[in-house]
Specification:
binds 6-O-phosphono-alpha-D-fructofuranose; eight-stranded mixed beta sheet; alpha+beta
Length: 336
């Protein structure tokens, strides 16, 4: 039985990745070591998020706690933990975090062959009301041994070697792809291990959920307006789609991945490049969607083919079930 297998044949994330990496004879275990440090960061954040209300970690930075220490906001704390874990792994050279204006270049003695782009706590505006939030990350390999520069991360998403997110919700779930499908691991707090619970996740080809902030409708362009109209008032007699929008990307994307449908953060008059960041929101989620059989589109091109020029660049994004994204691609194509 599955339960027995869980008890005796523990497929932890580390063991799973070791198995994956053993397919590459040249692999020296560097990726497995890098991943184990990302997992450490996720376990820490999971624990901090769950205790936030009690530990008074909620609220604005600048407050002092009873020891008179500078109280750190959860996202600042999470960022510190991930940067320290990634640097100490000795497997990274460049880090880009949503929390840091500039990239972090690891000191020569601790450099490794990976570059990690991440949002340590995406959706953190939802923390105070207990809505699910998450960590999102993408991994590039360094292709030279010279001084690392931002050029090493200003690469299209199609050069990422791995991507994933960890959702801190009713359970703590890490969803990961190293290029051979998408796999979900659930944290077993009694073991402190992420256990494989969702092997080889595939997104339904078509879904009946659309996920967008309808509050921005007055600013949308023609194709997005037409598409959302079609979701609500289908002309072909098919049932209208359901609207589900959490406002936390990891929660909205996780539901889309498991249930199907489409997640949209379009450009609008206020934000011509949309709101979501290319390197550590759009690319990792697009990578996962394609690996799960879905697709991701910017309104102009395949999202993973974007070449970012700045590390905090934004892009519109439409991602999810293959057929649903095809529909909006057709509307943008007919607009040209
Ligand atoms: P809006 C959270 O602040 C975030 O960065 C994503 O997690 C989420 O998808 C998006 O912004 C929500 O933005 O404008 O709909 O509140």
């Amino acid at each position: 039985h599955a339960a027995d297998a869980h008890r005796t044949d523990l497929m932890t994330i580390t063991r799973f990745v070791l198995n994956e990496q053993s397919k590459y004879p040249e692999s020296r275990g560097d990726f497995t070591i890098l991943l184990s440090h990302i997992v450490l960061g996720c376990k820490f954040v999971c624990s901090a998020v769950n205790k936030a209300g009690l530990a008074k970690l909620i609220g604005l930075a600048g407050e002092t706690n009873i020891q008179g220490e500078e109280q750190k906001k959860l996202d600042v704390l999470s960022n510190d933990v991930f940067v320290k874990a990634l640097v100490s792994s000795g497997r990274t050279s460049v880090l880009v975090s949503e929390e840091d204006e500039e990239a972090t270049f690891v000191e020569p003695s601790k450099r490794g062959k990976y570059c990690v782009v991440f949002d340590p706590l995406d959706g953190s505006s939802n923390i105070d009301c207990g809505v699910s939030i998450g960590t999102i990350f993408g991994i590039y390999t360094l292709t030279h041994t010279d001084e690392p520069t931002t050029e090493d991360v200003l690469k299209p998403g199609n050069e990422m070697v791995a991507a994933g997110y960890c959702m801190y919700g009713s359970s703590c779930m890490l969803v990961l792809s190293t290029g051979t499908g998408v796999h979900g691991f659930t944290l077993d707090p009694s073991l402190g291990e992420f256990i494989l619970t969702h092997p080889d996740i595939k997104i339904p080809t078509k879904g009946n959920i659309y996920s967008v902030n309808e509050g921005n409708a007055q600013n949308w362009d023609g194709p997005t307006t037409k598409y959302v109209e079609k979701c609500k008032f289908p002309k072909d007699g098919s049932p209208a789609k359901s609207l589900r929008y959490v406002g936390s990307m990891v929660a909205d994307v996780h539901r889309t991945l498991l249930y199907g449908g489409i997640f949209l953060y379009p450009a609008d008059k206020k934000s011509p490049n949309g709101k979501l960041r290319v390197l550590y929101e759009v690319f990792p989620m697009s990578f996962l969607m394609e690996q799960a059989g879905g697709q991701a589109f910017t309104g102009k091109k395949r999202a993973l083919d974007l070449v970012p020029e700045k590390i905090h660049e934004r892009s519109p994004i439409f991602l999810g079930s293959y057929d649903d994204v095809e529909e909006i691609k057709a509307l943008y194509a007919s607009e040209e």
